[in-house]
Every structure is written in structure tokens, then in C-alpha cells.
């Protein structure tokens, strides 16, 4: 009898022991042993081999396979990747490497438990919508987005998560929905076996297979007879075909970012972070500028303390414009908060800040000193707004003070156009325009005289309070300006306004902002309007009114050049707060055949350079022209005057090579011109100017050359004050002038000419 009792007790303990099932190394009493411990009946249940794998991650002499089987009825199920490595690796190492490499694949993990990482859920973007992310407990206000493919949690709450996109593969669970079971097979194993340990403990060997098989409603399903190879992911590695949207991001949670929308319409999220191990920009990124081959991102502050997923990058971040690889980052840009950036030439940039304009050494990646007379005023009364570069000057908006005109050759302020302006742009024809409230202002590019045009009925919304770059923009194809109207000083309107620069006419109903029905309407955010320089499409960024969670809703609308809405994209739900759209600079300037390669000159020869060079994705009128080199200054002097003309003045008989440089937004091409001063001047393919002034700069006598009869000559300083100048035989003695820049107005019997010269 004693033996019978002993046998009963042993059977009881055996039952208890067998009832405890391990799930990823954790004993579970709530799952039936018979369903969980089941193994495949035949080792040949799946005949897949490493030769079938298309997407390999990692490098090394060892290789293993990784399979996910969702059992959700969606095709294709049982997806297969490959992993290569040297040394030692675990199942977790393989999983995380694939998660990081393949942006279609995402997971829910509880990391750092006593058993390692617990796998709560796996997902895969089946439809290419790029909406990888999760909602917890049905809360769509605060979605969770993966970083390196991982959404982290700190408890076994896996049953509470659902995928943002219901069309994706997604299965998660622990105690309610089901769970992920782990099956492994090494080369010496005849069949897949249920793993008693989790991925953190699983040691891979060369030839291993790992299969994660979801048990819906705790019902074990056989491993599939067919595995589907995941196609290799082709990442966007060169950001040339499409456009960027720079984002402020969610203050207190994430630092600034940039998304890229390619020409196929796919949205690539946080492309800078993806290329730089989850680094980001600073806090409230407000501006982005491409100059040359670099992308300059400007943020108001250096970092957002609430960001834990992305490493902040500073007030200025410089990246490769085509690959997004980081070049440099700066927390301090002169002591102020970031506002704007402008490329000046191949070596120099201007940083617009809340306390002035600072030089930036592009060649050596260093922040320099402040430009005199650009500082002053408090952070919200003297901040710098946007800046533009013409072929001769920089025009920079300064709050409450006006527009600063800066000579980029000397980095000095030569004129302050006083007034209250919000933004400044250059039109296709080269004219300069500023805007403020219900007024548009034309600024003469040479004399800086201002002509005011009243906007008939609507207004322009100012952006100095919580500064942004504004919606005031221009077309590279049409001689027209565009902006978004406003209801009052705080609220944008619903119309895009067009101003015809040539006819000086307004169309205040050029295009309507979509989404104006219902309780919550679409509203523009940040510098919401920009124009593609190549396609002439208008890109409009909108979010949803109503504050709070409504700001998770974001749209990108495309209008053609006539104002017709042609496309709308809906972004992943998130607090992107889009700041500004930026277009790639793909094309270099092109010099056309009208600029001769050889010139014969016996007298001063002037070649008009304004129309000899063009650029498909930048304003041709703004291309910088300069004399890069002159092989023999004793034979000929060569300079570019204020009218963008090359002036060749013979000094002696002989030959020289003059190299002219053309800089279009940082992309540079050169043209060599052979000058012969020993023969009679030929007409060639260039234009002869009716007026030339030389030498320039000048120290003693300024010569005026024209084929026409000179009726009057007036000289002004940069403030517009008339200078007493005596003209004799078309010459002006300037030896007693104060050194600096002057403007000369020559009226002939055929034309009125305005040029500038420098007294040295």
C-alpha cells in the first residue's frame, strides 16, 4: 500500500512539472502543455534552404535563417530573412540586426527582464504604406513609433497593442490574444524543436534556423510547409528625386527631423536619423537650406530635454545633401537661437540668429564672429528673419528695424531699409520684394529705393512671435510671387494669393486650401508654402485645427502652376509640426555658347554675363559671377561690374587667359576666355555695352564710356545722398571721395543707366 501511495505522489508531481510550460524561457502554468510542447512530425516539413533567402543582413562566415509566421490569414505569411556573422551571436542579435536593417519589419519588446528580452509582438509593412507603428489600448492620440524597428514596453502588456495600419502583418499577446512561440533547428537536429529558452539565451551556430510562430488564441499551428523569402530592401540612399519637409517635431518629446517624399509618392520618415544612428537636430527645427552639396538645418534651441529616442544635434546641423550623412553639429552659433542660414560663396555662409548674423566658415566648419550692425534688440524685437542672396548683395530681414543690405565681399552693412517687414524674396526677373501685413514692397536692387503696393483685400500673417520662415515664396518658372492670406494677425486664411510681378496684379483666390468642411479644418503650419523650382508645383503643408491630438493629422498638398490641386498625401499620425519644404539642388549652372572662348581687344571690351548662364533649379538671375584668375594682369585687367558684365581693359599688347567663375547656390562652373590685345577688336559672339565705367574699384579718375551722347551724370552714396561730382570729358575725379561704394546714374540720349563703383 505504501508503494501505491508513493507512486500516486510521484505521478502527481510529474503532472505538476509537465503542466509548467516555458514561453521564451518563462514558466507558464496557464497554458496547456499538450498544445505548446508539440513538435513537427517530420524533419522535412519544410524544405527551404539558405539558397532561397534573398535578403541577407550582416557579414561574416556564419549564416542563419530567421522566419516569422503570423498565422493571420494575410499573404504572404512565414517570411524569411538571412543573417551572417563572425564570432558568437544569439537569436536576439539576429532579430535586432534584421529589425534595424529592414524598415518594413517592427517589433514590441520588453527588454531587460531576468530572462533577457521578451518578444511581445512582430509586424511587417505588407502594403508599403510606411505606417509602421502601434496604438496602445486604442489610444490614437499617442501612437508609438519604432526606433531601429523596436517599440519598447516595460511590462508584459503585449495584448494591449494594435498596429496603426490594419493591413500590415501584426500579432502580439501574452495572456489574452495568444503568444509568440519560439522554434529552433541547428544543423544536427532532425526537426524543428520548441525552444525552452528565449532569444537572448539562444546561441546560434552556423546553419541555424529560428522560427517565431504565433499561437492565435493559444492554439499551436504547424510550421508552414513553405517559407516566403523577403525581397531585399532598397533604401533611398541618395535624396535627389523628390523633396524634403523639415519638421519642428513634438516639443518636450522629440527633436527636429526631416522627411523625404520621393517622386513615386513614398514618404521616407526621419531620413537624417536613419542615416546617423538615430541622431536628430535641435529643438524646434525651423529652417533648412541646401547650398552646394550640403544641407544646413537650423533649430531654435540646441536640444529638447524630453527626447530620449533621438540624440539631439544642436542649433546648426550640417549634412551631406544627397546622403543625409552628418558632417558637423553646433550647439552654440554665437549665443543666440537659430533662425536661418544662407550660403554666400564656396567658403562662407551667414547664420541668422535671434541676436544677429554670424559668419560661418564653410570650408573649415566653424562659427565665426557677428557682422557689425546686425545685432541689437531683444530676442523678440531684434531677431533676424529670412535672408536672400542676389548676385550683388544679401538682403536680411531684422525684426522692427527693417531690411539690412549687406555687401558679401566685405561682410558689411551698406544700407538699412527701415520699416516693419516680415519676409523678403527675389523674383524670377531679379527684382526684390518684401511683405508686411497688407502691403507688398518692391526694393530696387541697386539704389534700394522702395515702391509700395497695397494688397487689395487680404493680409499676410506675420511670424515674428513664434518665428517661422513664412509662406512668402516665388516661382522659378513664372515671374510671380505667392503666399497664404490671413484672417488676422494670429490666424491663417484659406486662400493662396498670387502676385504677377510683371503686371503688378493680385489674384487673391488663386487656390483654396483643402479640408474646409466639418468641425475641424485643415490649416497651414509653419512656412507652409513653397514652390518646386523645376516642376513649378506648389507644395502646401497643413495640419488639423483644434489643438492637442488634432495636430497629429498632417497633409501635403500639391498644386500645379495654374492652381489646380493634383495630389494629396496623408502622413503617419504624429506631431510633426512641419516647418518648411526644401527642394534638392541637382543641377549645376550651364554656360551657353554665346559666351566666347576667345576675345580680341584693342579697347575696353564689355561682355554681358546676365544671360550667358542658367540653372534649371535655381534663379539664373541670382548666379554669382566673378573673375577667378587672370594669367597676365599686365596685358589686360578683368573685372565684373555691378551690372554683371565682364569688363576687359587692355594694358599692353599680348595674350592672357581670364577664367570666369559662375556660382549658382554653391554649385560652381568655370569658363576660360583667351584675350588677345594685339589685333583689332572683333564683335564675336558677345554683346557690346552702350555704357561702361572703369576702372572699378577706382582711386583717382573714373572713366565713362558710351557710344551715346551723355546728357547728365549724378553720383549718390549708399544712403541716397547726392555727391557733388564734376564731369569733364566723360571723366570724374573721385580722389577726394571717402572710400566706399557709390552709385552713378548716367542719362544719355537713348537710355538711363545705373551702376555702382567702389572708391578705394
UniProtKB/TrEMBL annotation:
Keyword line: Signal
Residues of the signal peptide: 1-19
UniProt cross-references to Pfam families, sorted A to Z: DUF5074 (PF16819), Por_Secre_tail (PF18962)
Entry superkingdom: Bacteria
Keyword Signal: yes
Keyword Signal part of the UniProt annotation: yes
The Secretion system C-terminal sorting domain, residue ranges: 693-758
NCBIfam families listed in its UniProt record: Por_Secre_tail
Name of the protein: DUF5074 domain-containing protein
Amino acid at each position: 500500500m505504501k508503494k501505491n501511495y508513493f507512486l500516486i505522489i510521484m505521478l502527481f508531481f510529474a503532472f505538476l512539472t509537465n503542466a509548467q510550460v516555458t514561453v521564451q524561457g518563462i514558466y507558464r502554468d496557464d497554458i496547456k502543455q499538450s498544445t505548446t510542447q508539440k513538435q513537427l512530425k517530420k524533419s522535412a516539413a519544410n524544405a527551404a534552404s539558405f539558397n532561397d533567402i534573398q535578403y541577407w543582413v550582416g557579414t561574416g562566415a556564419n549564416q542563419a535563417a530567421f522566419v516569422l509566421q503570423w498565422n493571420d490569414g494575410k499573404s504572404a505569411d512565414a517570411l524569411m530573412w538571412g543573417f551572417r556573422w563572425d564570432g558568437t551571436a544569439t537569436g536576439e542579435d539576429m532579430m535586432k540586426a534584421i529589425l534595424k536593417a529592414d524598415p518594413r519589419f517592427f517589433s514590441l519588446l520588453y527588454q531587460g527582464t531576468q530572462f533577457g528580452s521578451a518578444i511581445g509582438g512582430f509586424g511587417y509593412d505588407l502594403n508599403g504604406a510606411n505606417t509602421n507603428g502601434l496604438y496602445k489600448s486604442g489610444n490614437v492620440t499617442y501612437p508609438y513609433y519604432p526606433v531601429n524597428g523596436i517599440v519598447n514596453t516595460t511590462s508584459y502588456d503585449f495584448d494591449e497593442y494594435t498596429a496603426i495600419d490594419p493591413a500590415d502583418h501584426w500579432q502580439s499577446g501574452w495572456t489574452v490574444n495568444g503568444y509568440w512561440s519560439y522554434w529552433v533547428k541547428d544543423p544536427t537536429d532532425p526537426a524543428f524543436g520548441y525552444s525552452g529558452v528565449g532569444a537572448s539565451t539562444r546561441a546560434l551556430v552556423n546553419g541555424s534556423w529560428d522560427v517565431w510562430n504565433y499561437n492565435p488564441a493559444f492554439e499551436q499551428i504547424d510550421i508552414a510547409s513553405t517559407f516566403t523569402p523577403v525581397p531585399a530592401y532598397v533604401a533611398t540612399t541618395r535624396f535627389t528625386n523628390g523633396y524634403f519637409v523639415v519638421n519642428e517635431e513634438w516639443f518636450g518629446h522629440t527633436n527636429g527631423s526631416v522627411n523625404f517624399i520621393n517622386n513615386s509618392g513614398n514618404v521616407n520618415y526621419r531620413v537624417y536619423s536613419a542615416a546617423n544612428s538615430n541622431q536628430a537636430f535641435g529643438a524646434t527645427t525651423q529652417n533648412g537650406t541646401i547650398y552646394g552639396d550640403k544641407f544646413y538645418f537650423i533649430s531654435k534651441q540646441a536640444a529638447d530635454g524630453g527626447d530620449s529616442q533621438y540624440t539631439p544635434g544642436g542649433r546648426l546641423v550640417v549634412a551631406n545633401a544627397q546622403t543625409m550623412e552628418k558632417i558637423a553639429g553646433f550647439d552654440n552659433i554665437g549665443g543666440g537661437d537659430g533662425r536661418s542660414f544662407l550660403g554666400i560663396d564656396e567658403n562662407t555662409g551667414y547664420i541668422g540668429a535671434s541676436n544677429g548674423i554670424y559668419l560661418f566658415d564653410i570650408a573649415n566648419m566653424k562659427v565665426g564672429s557677428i557682422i557689425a550692425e546686425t545685432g541689437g534688440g531683444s530676442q523678440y524685437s531684434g531677431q533676424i528673419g529670412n535672408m536672400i542672396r542676389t548676385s550683388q548683395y544679401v538682403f536680411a530681414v531684422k525684426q522692427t528695424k527693417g531690411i539690412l543690405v549687406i555687401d558679401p565681399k566685405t561682410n558689411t552693412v551698406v544700407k538699412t531699409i527701415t520699416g516693419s517687414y516680415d519676409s523678403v524674396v527675389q523674383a524670377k526677373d531679379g527684382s526684390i520684394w518684401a511683405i508686411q501685413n497688407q502691403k507688398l514692397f518692391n526694393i530696387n536692387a541697386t539704389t534700394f529705393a522702395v515702391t509700395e503696393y497695397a494688397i487689395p483685400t487680404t493680409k499676410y500673417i506675420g511670424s515674428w512671435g513664434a518665428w517661422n520662415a513664412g509662406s512668402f515664396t516665388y516661382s522659378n518658372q513664372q515671374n510671380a510671387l505667392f503666399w497664404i492670406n490671413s484672417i488676422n494677425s494670429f490666424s491663417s486664411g484659406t486662400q493662396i494669393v498670387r502676385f504677377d510681378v510683371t503686371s503688378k496684379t493680385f489674384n487673391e483666390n488663386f487656390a483654396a486650401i483643402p479640408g474646409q468642411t466639418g468641425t475641424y479644418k485643415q490649416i497651414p503650419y509653419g512656412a507652409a508654402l513653397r514652390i518646386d523650382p523645376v516642376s513649378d508645383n506648389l507644395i502646401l503643408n497643413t495640419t488639423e485645427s483644434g489643438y492637442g491630438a488634432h495636430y497629429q493629422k498632417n497633409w501635403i498638398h500639391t498644386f500645379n502652376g495654374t492652381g489646380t490641386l493634383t495630389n494629396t498625401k496623408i502622413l503617419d499620425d504624429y506631431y510633426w509640426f512641419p516647418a518648411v519644404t526644401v527642394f534638392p539642388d541637382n543641377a549645376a549652372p550651364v554656360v551657353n555658347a554665346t559666351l566666347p572662348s576667345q576675345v580680341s581687344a584693342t579697347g575696353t571690351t564689355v561682355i554681358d554675363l546676365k544671360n550667358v548662364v542658367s540653372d534649371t533649379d535655381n534663379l539664373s538671375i541670382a548666379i554669382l559671377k566673378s573673375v577667378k584668375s587672370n594669367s597676365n594682369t599686365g596685358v589686360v585687367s578683368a573685372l565684373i561690374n555691378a551690372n554683371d558684365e565682364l569688363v576687359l581693359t587692355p594694358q599692353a599688347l599680348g595674350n592672357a587667359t581670364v577664367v570666369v567663375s559662375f556660382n549658382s547656390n554653391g554649385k560652381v562652373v568655370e569658363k576660360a576666355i583667351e584675350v588677345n590685345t594685339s589685333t583689332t577688336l572683333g564683335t564675336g559672339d558677345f554683346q557690346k555695352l552702350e555704357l561702361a565705367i572703369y576702372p572699378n574699384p577706382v582711386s583717382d579718375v573714373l572713366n565713362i564710356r558710351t557710344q551715346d551722347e551723355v546728357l547728365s551724370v549724378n553720383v549718390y552714396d549708399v544712403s541716397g545722398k547726392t555727391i557733388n561730382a564734376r564731369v569733364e570729358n566723360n571723366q570724374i575725379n573721385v580722389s577726394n571721395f571717402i572710400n566706399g561704394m557709390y552709385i552713378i546714374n548716367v542719362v544719355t540720349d537713348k537710355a538711363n543707366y545705373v551702376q555702382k563703383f567702389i572708391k578705394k
